[in-house]
Specification:
Rossmann fold, Alpha-Beta Plaits, 2 domains, 14 strands, elongated
Amino acid sequence: MDEAIELVNLTKSYGKLMAVNNVNLQVHEGEFFGLLGPNGAGKTTIVRLITGLTRPSSGKVLVAGHDMSTEPVQVKREFGLIPEVSNLYNDMSAWENLIFSSKLYGIQKDEASRRSMELLELFGLKERLGGKVGQFSKGMKRRLAIAMALIHRPRILFLDEPTGGLDVQSSRLIRQMLRQLHIDGVTIFMTTHYIEEADQLCNRVAIINQGSIVALDTPEKLRSSTPEVVIDVAFDSPTQIPAELEVNFTKLVKLREERFRIYTTDSETLIKLLRAFADSTGRSIMAMSTMKPTLEDVFVKYTGVDALAAERMEQLRPKRGAG
């Protein structure tokens, strides 16, 4: 299988801080690849290294077979980049942004006009082609940013937090567009804080923590990589799970006063004990379900970071240069 991206012993340090630590990674041609990790784990640094915005301390970056260190121009012709912080010109129209982007890639005027109109129509922006970008919503700006990254028909698309800070409707629309691009054969490399988004979209997912890749596989295989089963149990009144049951589970999460999420490697025994506990205390179990761990559970296992909490913090974090 051809590799669209290959990282060989890639390392980036800032003084004593090791932002990326000896990473080896291959992304296949035509793959939708996701990179997950908590804030400061190295996700954005890896994107910057691959796209030539930052030089590595050591190691090699190959994109479509070209070495970024010796063939940067050839590499940059192969990809489009949508950074987390907007790269749009707010005082220019959508049309002017696209034409300007086409000039950077040396696209001839007639072709640039045709391609710009195609993209504006594809991304639902044709009616706003003359509108100043500064008056666009966040979702419209993100769609325009993706259109600009596609102006030169790249083989590879890099997205850093593509739906960060967007409303539900805009996020859903962006995901639909990305699915179609993937179907059309574009290789997509995406970083995201949204675990469910990666689970829905990606063929494979890597989890990075403290600069190192700690897990890499399909979402399905990552979810199956732990022997644990998750039990959700709700009693009819507030309670506490007794200490003597702790030996039968690996983790307990109190969801409400009467509801718990328990991780165990022996669900059959624990279910019997929970029923016995309810009977002995005069309580009833109102609901109980068992399920395999989610990708979010796998994320927590490898990073120690609560993924939902990380998403909430990301939503509250100010965006530099956002507009």
